[in-house]
Amino acid sequence: MNPSAPFPKLKRGLVAILRGLHPNEAVAVADAIYRAGIEAIEVPLNSPDPFTSIASIVKALPHSALIGAGTVLTAEDVDALKRAEGRLLVSPNIDADVMRRAAHHGLVTMPGVFTPTEAFQAIRLGASALKFFPASVLGSSGIAAMRAVLPNDTLVGAVGGVSEKDFAGYKTAGVTVFGLGSSLFKPGMTVADVTMRAEAAVAVWDQVFGEQK
Known about the structure:
The protein is 42% helix and 15% strand. Strands 5-4-3-2-1-9-8-7-6 form a 9-stranded parallel β-sheet. It is globular, with a radius of gyration of 16 Å. The protein has helices spanning 23-36, 50-60, 75-83, 96-105, 116-124, 135-147, 167-171, 191-208, and strands at 14-17, 40-44, 66-70, 88-90, 108-110, 112-113, 130-132, 156-159, 177-180. The termini are far apart. It is an alpha/beta fold.
């Protein structure tokens, strides 16, 4: 099976998860997050009219921004993401049909895994990165134990109950990508609220990891 597109080099391994985002606020919120220094943004598909939001964000931000969808569960969703010109596919699970369609479209994939069996299945299916989810249940020690048996070049992300307060602890487990959800954005927040939270996350990232040039 063909692999997904490689995970691109970002200044910071941060993915903003904008669950519940409305299309009429999508560009303003995404622009604020991007300006704060977070280059990857996902709109989960259980948000209102998500593909409209994704298409708008793609058009508004530079091509270097990695924009896409979360909670992608079907091959049909993958096709719709491609039509919206999104490049990032995030899912809570590992599904062979989804992964095959994503590879066909040349998308960057980050499927959700929780066990070594799921992690190795995702690697066999060509995942660009692994999303350990929910990370708050596994903890850094659980991820570290699984990371020890994975190929050295496996890109590992932590998503679910994660905020900037957890960066240092997860770094020791080999995590280099973090999905930030409710710690960054909740429906009803103002752009100023989101900006403040995004800037705080970026500041901690730079302190823990250093900005990647």
